[in-house]
Design goal:
The protein has helices spanning 79-83, 123-136, 189-202, 213-226, 246-260, 288-297; strands spanning 8-14, 17-25, 50-51, 56-57, 65-68, 74-77, 92-99, 109-117, 139-146, 149-158, 161-167. The protein has 358 residues and is an alpha+beta fold. Among the domains are: 8-28 and 84-172, Beta Barrel (Ku70, Chain: A, Domain 2), CATH 2.40.290; 186-200 and 242-292, no CATH class.
């Protein structure tokens, strides 16, 4: 494994235990970068650091930092000034608490780092903290100073390494005011059932299988232009008009998702098929299951209903009800409006008892 250059050296403060560590980046960017050029002749556009008082370019060694006051006055700040600040986190990652991981709002997550033990003496206390985090199943909340400001961090274990995620301060998270729709919208149960069916059809995905299609297309285009070839034509974008019928759009989405995952093309997506449809992943505890059953009970004799373990029986044209050979029975509604009750009880579903007259 190649050595990664550390960006910060310090120590983890764990009570009275000090653990020397090195901070290294846990992520890297694969984005394609571009240079600015002069469109007329292709010349590079470069930025030069010029002192506005002397009107000349200066080197990096001549450049310092300063704070601009409200009246425009520049107050010089040196590295020595910052190093002498009376805060313990200047060179220390100070652990202040241990909390369950679900207490951390994902909106606060920032850059990620790996903490590497700095030297042989640091191996024992480093391992101690790592194993303590594993056994407690909690994360450590810490404060540290980096790049000119004090920051909040979360320490957790990744494989056999302690990782640290930078966290935004709570007052840096904006409240979602004015973001949600401000109109009153009613979502029907059928629409929720179809949304559940679409989610269940799409299923899960291994994030390792996902890749950056845009970056690959840019790299292929650059390769073609470098070879003097014509880049491939972009495919025509799918026409996306205004959604006029939400139910039709959901049903079409379910069918397309089924076809993309090898299901029978043209299979009709029905609300009543959610509880009985065989899927690669069985999900439990959905609120829409009970709603789907209630919806199915209200349908007319032309609508199919399903049982938990057996296929549904069919109502005859005259509205009479037949008992199946296995003893299961289904309610059906006559098209003329007459009502019949089931003659027998099934093991999976209790039939409503008939009222007796005195």
């Amino acid at each position: 494994m190649r050595q990664v250059r550390s960006i910060w050296n310090g120590a983890i403060s764990f009570g009275l235990v000090s653990i020397p560590i090195k901070l290294v980046n846990a992520t890297e960017s694969h984005s394609v970068s571009f240079r600015q050029i002069h469109t007329e002749d292709g010349g590079r556009i470069r930025y030069r650091k010029v002192c506005e008082l002397e009107d000349r370019e200066v080197t990096q060694a001549e450049i310092g930092k300063a704070y601009e006051d409200a009246d425009g006055t520049m107050i010089p700040i040196t590295d020595e000034d910052l190093a002498q600040l009376p805060i313990p986190t200047a060179k220390t990652i100070e652990i202040v608490a241990f909390v369950p991981a679900d207490r951390i709002d994902p909106l606060q997550m920032d850059a990620a780092y790996y903490l590497s033990a700095n030297g042989v003496p640091a191996a024992k206390p480093y391992t101690l903290l790592r194993e303590a985090l594993k056994r407690s199943q909690k994360v450590a909340i810490a404060k540290y100073a980096l790049r000119g400001r004090e920051r909040l961090g979360m320490l957790r274990v990744v494989d056999d390494v302690i990782a640290m995620h930078g966290l935004l301060w709570p007052d840096e998270i904006r409240a979602p005011e004015g973001v949600a729709p401000d109109t009153s919208v009613t979502v029907r149960d059928k629409e929720l059932d179809l949304a559940d069916a679409l989610m269940d059809t799409l299923g899960e995905v291994d994030l390792a299988d996902l890749h950056d299609d845009y970056r690959e297309a840019v790299e292929e285009m650059i390769t073609a232009k470098a070879a003097g070839e014509q880049p491939a034509d972009a495919p025509a974008p799918a026409r996306s008009g205004k959604v006029l019928d939400l139910m039709a759009a959901l049903e079409k989405s379910v069918r397309e998702a089924q076809e993309s995952r090898g299901a029978e093309p043209g299979a009709k997506a029905e609300v009543t098929s959610i509880s009985s449809r065989a899927t690669p992943k069985q999900t439990t505890g959905k609120k829409s299951t009970s709603t789907a059953k209630k919806t199915a009970a209200k349908k007319t004799a032309t609508t199919k209903t399903t049982t938990t373990k057996t296929t549904s029986t069919k109502a005859s044209a005259s509205g009479s009800t037949r008992a199946s050979a296995s003893g299961s029975a289904k309610k059906s509604t006559q098209s003329q409006g007459t009502k019949k009750t089931a003659a027998k009880k099934t093991p999976a579903k209790k039939a409503t008892p008939r009222k007796r007259t005195a």
